[in-house]
Model the fold of this input.
Amino acid sequence: MNAVPIISVDGVSKQFGASYSLMRRLAGEPPLAVHALNNVSFEVHRGETLGIVGESGCGKSTLARCLVRLLDPDGGAIRFEGRDISTLRSAERRAFNKRVQMIFQDPYGSLNPRMTVSQVLNEALSVHRMRPKGDIPARITELLDLVRLPHDAASRYPHEFSGGQRQRIGIARALAVEPDVIVADELVSALDVSVQAQVINLLLRLQEELHLTLIFVAHDLRLVRHISHRVAVMYLGQIMEIGPSESLFASPRHPYSKALLDAAPELDPTQRSRVVAARGELPSPLDVPPGCPFASRCSHVFDRCRVERPALTKRASEHSAACHLVDFGAMPSALADAV
Amino acid sequence: MSVAIDTGLGLTVRGLTALFNTPRGMALAVADVDLDVAPGEMVGLVGESGSGKSVTLRSIMGLIQTPGHVTGKVEWGGRDLVAMPAEELRRIRGSEIAMIFQEPMTALNPVLPVGLQLEENLVAHTRLNARERRARALQLMNTVGIPAAERRLNEYPHQFSGGMRQRAMIAIALACSPKLLLADEPTTALDVTIQDQILKLLLDLRDRLAMSVVLVTHDLGVIAGTCDRMAVMYAGRIVEMGTVIDVFRQPRHPYTRGLLGSVPRAGAVRTMLSSIEGTPPSLTDLPAGCAFHPRCSFATDICRQERPPLLSLGNDRKAACFHHDRVAAAEAIL
Ligand SMILES: Nc1ncnc2c1ncn2[C@@H]1O[C@H](COP(=O)(O)OP(=O)(O)OP(=O)(O)O)[C@@H](O)[C@H]1O
Ligand SMILES: Nc1ncnc2c1ncn2[C@@H]1O[C@H](COP(=O)(O)OP(=O)(O)OP(=O)(O)O)[C@@H](O)[C@H]1O
Ligand code: SF4
Ligand code: SF4
Ligand SMILES: [Mg+2]
Ligand SMILES: [Mg+2]
Done:
């Protein structure tokens, strides 16, 4: 995995202005801003699935939108195959838009209700001139097979499908242009669990078959853990921990990852706990504390945490965390030696 | 007010059925549901969207209005809530039996301070005077873990975060020390660390107040972490029932088995999930025989012709499947 990353995110920040209240103006205070992304850095390797997980408002969707250039960061850079995507112009930008596809959460909102499935796919195929006109019908059939929709789906309208089937149409549309990267934001969150599992299986299979790079954004840790090779855990616009899925969740190196894991409802009724995983509430994104963003809820907090923001530093190969307790979650040294 | 009535027998629901007259035909939203909840017991009700979980709770509470129609028996303290006059039912609702709703914003009054809403309930169901009500309100806010309760009582619901609103809902529900709490997806809209806090709060309250709880959820993980017994609903019917430990260890209905296989588990990264093919049926157009047969890998001819009854399998276990033995014998899900 040491090859050049397909995507690299380097110190990316994004703010949204809140309304500038008269009170604040009169008091001479600066306008409030939501720091949706705060100095976020990571790399995505070709062919992997990178999961991005975190609670509501932590900046997952903002990050996803920056990755496909639906939003421009205020600071830092996002590089695709080494090129800063904010510098891409005309033909290059179109090529980027084709190679990096986003699939949206809302299967209802993102499909035009007046277009049949075949028209939706046809549009995607023609915009990027993917196939000569004559080959399009055959390609549509191929795409429907790929996402396991019946062939007669082509002539039907989105409202005639179930939620899971509509999600498949969205996936087929994204695949039509043969992208290298798919960014999926809460792709299955609105679906029933049994249907979620169908779509997850489909993604796992498509990724192997088509060598896709997948960025899977979701708030459900169980789903993210399941599908991802590597996972980034976000909190209040920052990455708290990033590492291989299995090791990150087997022994999290950040107290917040551990809390998320402990709070996730697992399927084993014999492993119950009455201990609350994390006390307190998420701080307002308008008022992020100066030190560690998790300090107000962390049961390991100490003085330094409240004044100094911990940097994301290396814990093991491919594994980093942003916590002043660098040994948090580390295996006892004797054990580590034995491994 | 109401003298202590012997609720020692808990809740007994028999043949609960809810029909809706819709433009597409009669929808049997809840069909022939039997459910027992012992005092101090927490029973989980799980199933996919539209399976009838909310309608079951609302039928128990007598909250179904036209075009809906409810039949069956809901026995509580020796009385039948379905047959009870509206006035008497209103008195029980909010005092002996309370409900928390999935979306607290729709259940809380947006233009009244939270404290007043708490007090309203106390005025309606207790004889406390103003000072006692205030004290009780403060005590309730503390019980559900709302900090700075004194100030918070004067605030409006929109000034609360999602988790705080849910706590306020619980405080209002607890105002009259109910003996039965019906909780409809009380944590679905919340972040997972907040969900964890609320579920553990419910468990503590159940222990402290010896309250019975029916917890509706679509997340089997929530059931695994909290409930004593569980019932699985599909297309308006209970298809499996038993202690949580038993059902998770060895499901006897293919739908339960499929649900369990659909949820990703720790330690199985990037494996195929054993999903259920297809989608839930429309209630106005249910398949003949077993409603699950079009999605069932265990189905045989009889399943397409007859509806399997919910049979007792001993040990407080029930399943509605002709082939429950084969299901139980099938290899473990993981
Ligand atoms: N267009 C916008 N204008 C103002 N604030 C915004 C905008 N988009 C996002 N935000 C704020 O930025 C923060 C991050 O939002 P974002 O949607 O990225 O979070 P998320 O992690 O995707 O949350 P969720 O799990 O709820 O989808 C939030 O505080 C949000 O309110
Ligand atoms: N007032 C109504 N009129 C007609 N049909 C209704 C009405 N209320 C509920 N239903 C139908 O009854 C069925 C069961 O609904 P219910 O709300 O109980 O589902 P649920 O299991 O709670 O689902 P969810 O997980 O989505 O909350 C649904 O098909 C629903 O459309
Ligand atoms: S830096 Fe301090 S407050 Fe932050 S997670 Fe680590 S121990 Fe907790
Ligand atoms: S009765 Fe038949 S169709 Fe229904 S769940 Fe059992 S095996 Fe499947
Ligand atoms: Mg989002
Ligand atoms: Mg419901």
